[in-house]
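Hey,

The postdoc asked me to send both predictions to you directly instead of through the lab channel. I've kept everything plain text so nothing gets mangled by the mail client. Protein one:
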Amino acid sequence: MSKKSPLLETLLTLEDLIGEEKQNIQGQWDELNMEKKAYEEMREKVGKLTLKPMVTLSIGGTVFKTRLHTLQNAPKESLFAQLFSGTGFTFEPDEDGSFFFDRDGTHFRYILNYLRGGIVNQTLLKDVSQSTKHEIACEAHYYGLTHLYEMIHPPEPPKPPHAVFDKCGSKLTLSQENSRIIKSSGGQCLYLYLYLYLRV
């Protein structure tokens, strides 16, 4: 039996390596096809979902029903608009058809009423404790409902700047937020009594 030449042995080895690489590439190609099929099936499910007029929400196990249109018309930056307006996010329902949010559903009726009309009935909040209002505001913040959050906790208006005088008699106008000097008039400034500003 004749001995194989080194060149032939090298070619046979390369052929085996190429065969193995082909198998690896084929396996990766099959996985990509499976992922593509799963993605297309998911898109089909989402497409069917948009045809349903009613949506069931499970907020920590408490069930609420509303129209899909109500959730789709939520503010664009809100969680509801991102999940139910077909913007690319996927949110599949549970086996019972409801969409589960891992939140306390105690105050969700305020959230849902806001989504339905863009307002919260102030008479409903009139007798609500401050701690409950804070909890509602926290839920509004979680769902991205900035306007509702600010309705409950209005932002404080910016405070006007204060003027103090240094030892030279120069008038300094200070920013209320960070004590910056935003305007100066008069001579050279040698000393600034910040405690005068802080006591205003």
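Protein two:
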Amino acid sequence: MAQHDYVINNDTAPNVRSDINLALAAIASNNSGATEPATTYANMFWYDTDTDVMKQRNENNSAWVTLELTPTTLVSLTQAQAEDDASTVFGTVSGQRLGQAIAKTLPIVYTDEYTATTAHTAVIPYDNTVPLIGEGTEILSVTSVVVATGRQVVVNVCGLASNTNNAGRVTLALFRGSTCIGVGHVQVQSSSVPGTITILTNDAPSAGTYTYSVRVGPAANTAYMNADASGVRVFGGASRTSLTVTVI
């Protein structure tokens, strides 16, 4: 703790040096003390050790202005204050809370890729029924966090599919949890030529954590992703089935 009038009087060299050191000590401690400095200047700082509050002199050098960010407010910030998005109380917040605050303004992208050329025989019927979570085979999945109700979720699925039967059908079904929210379908023209399946949908769930998954299934016969109907990979591995979930 140190305070100074910031006037260096003419004196012997040792005394001047000592006076300068005292002035520097006052600057380093923000003029800390249990009482205000005897000599004040516009915009100067004073750390009041009696109340543990940082203060600053106003422009007219007529009064002290209490600053909100002080060691006391940092320590005494309550859990409720830290979790109150509308609070004007300044203080420390948890890394999770800070992450949530950032997430409320920045898009967050979750991705998954399926690169295998496995044969799939579990059927997704080609009829007038909504695909069920137990139909077909799951090949993609991501868990996303929607931090606030009203955020839009854009989901994109894309991949190459084939069927061992000429004019065979392959379906990709997109689920949020156990609810189907999108379907992509292709009827291949030849078992040796894969077809492209794309799903693009917007979702708007309430705040929470959600799993988005993609299931593949032929209407009949056997389906392959990223390969022709013989299970031979196409495009040297550059072809892959992808799921992208963007929370905006």
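Summary for protein two, as requested: The CA atoms of residues 88 and 181 lie 40 Å apart.

Thanks,
C.
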